[in-house]
Design goal:
The complex is a heterodimer of chains A (273) and B (108).
Chain A: H1 27-40, H2 45-76, H3 90-116, H4 118-124, H5 126-130, H6 140-157, H7 174-193, H8 195-201, H9 206-224, H10 233-252, H11 259-269
Helix pairs in contact in A: 2-3, 2-6, 2-7, 3-6, 6-7, 9-10
Chain B: H1 2-21, H2 28-31, H3 35-60, H4 85-107
The chains are: A mainly alpha (273), B mainly alpha (108).
Chain lengths: 273, 108
């Protein structure tokens, strides 16, 4: 006997057989969809958060292997200790600055070499970057920048990697990734906000701007480390490094065009390779 | 028993007092607590962060997100330049390495 509709008494339509759930999309597709959605978000903050997380992971993973080149160069340089000086005295300042410079000299050499060779390296890895899905390509520059800075920061902090400042030392290089994303995504807005400062800056020749870009963070460092024993060392280092990055950016930022390409152009006009 | 307790107490005192006696750049962690070391690492680190940014931009900059902002700013005023500033910027670190190595020879 067929079933009838209780309200109308007509025979009920046969129930369709339940469809099996569609198989989940492959992980790669889901990641691509996620990145595409992040980039379409109008404020750009979602994508910035992704850049920060991915850059932090890149820094964390690359921390130990990327410190090796700097450690190798440092191993060639002489070891200096300042045990003969009064802590907090000007001679101790000079001696410890010399030790600091030797500690980061290996990183300086490696990063400057990468900077000089950046275009051949870019050409060499173009085939590799072309294989990155379109949705993920906005991460290439931040990750590469982060890894380049990790060479420097990890090389100088391999013995004190456990310290933490604004963020743990091992993820601090991610600030470069975020900086790269921010300058590309919000460069014009930043330039507009800095308008009066850029007007003031433009009264001085480029050389004086570079000197000012170095002296401002140096003065800040002198003020916040004016202690016999510097406290919160990682915090103060990270703060001064960020201020140096910002003052360098402001000193070299072009008035028009893409910011970082403009900075590179300015450096080339000054004789950079 | 008393001697053992005194030895343990002495060991504890030495262990806790050691960091307080340092801050003379006698080890990497101790160097971080000296102002000159802290300043140079941070300052050179910041400059290398900018260099790292330029390296990243050279390699992946063509795939960077489009700038959504407005206001491209005013045209840049052309200034006289090319007085070898970049050369000086490169020369200063190299000179500092030479000085640092010299200091190492004197105090090392």
């Amino acid at each position: 006997m067929p079933r009838v509709d209780e309200a109308g008494g007509t025979p009920a339509a046969p129930q369709p057989a339940p469809q099996p759930a569609p198989p989940p999309a492959p992980l790669g597709d889901r990641i691509r969809a996620f990145l595409a959605r992040a980039q379409s978000e109008p404020s750009g903050l979602f994508a910035a958060a992704i850049v920060l997380v991915v850059s932090a992971l890149a820094s964390l993973i690359g921390w130990i292997p990327l410190a090796w080149p700097s450690q190798f160069v440092d191993g060639v340089l002489p070891k200096v200790r300042c045990t003969g000086f009064q802590p907090g005295s000007p001679p101790m300042y000079g001696c410890s600055a010399a030790v600091g410079f030797i500690a980061i000299a290996g990183s300086l050499v490696i990063v400057l070499a990468l900077f000089v060779l950046r275009r051949p390296i870019a050409a060499a890895v173009r085939a590799l970057t072309a294989r990155v899905p379109q949705e993920g390509r906005f991460l290439i520059a931040p990750v590469v920048g982060t890894l380049a800075f990790t060479i420097a920061w990890a090389g100088a902090h391999h013995a004190t990697a456990s310290l933490s400042g604004i963020v743990p030392q091992t993820v601090f290089p991610a600030v470069v990734g975020l900086f790269l994303y921010a300058t590309a995504r919000w460069g014009n807005g930043i330039r507009k906000a800095l308008g009066p400062l850029l007007d003031l800056r433009d009264r001085y020749a480029i050389g004086w701007r570079i000197v000012a870009a170095a002296l401002i963070p140096l003065a800040l460092s002198l003020i916040i480390t004016a202690e016999a024993r510097v406290s919160q060392t990682a915090l103060k280092e990270q703060l001064v490094a960020i201020v140096t990055l910002v003052t360098g950016y402001i000193a070299l930022l072009p008035r028009t065009g893409p910011p970082l390409a403009g900075i590179e152009q300015t450096l080339r006009e000054l004789g950079a390779p | 028993m008393t001697i053992k307790a005194a030895v343990i107490a002495l060991a504890l005192v030495v262990a806790t007092a050691q960091p307080a006696l340092a801050h003379d750049c006698s080890s990497p962690a101790d160097c971080e607590q000296t102002a000159g070391y802290n300043a140079i690492i941070a300052l050179v680190g910041g400059a290398l962060a900018l260099a790292g940014g330029l390296i990243g931009n050279a390699i992946g900059g063509s795939d960077a997100p489009a700038d959504q902002g407005t206001g491209a700013g005013l045209p840049r005023k052309r200034r006289g330049c090319c007085l070898g500033w970049f050369t000086m910027v490169l020369a200063v670190p190299l000179a500092l390495v030479a000085v640092a190595v010299g200091v190492a020879g004197v105090f090392g």
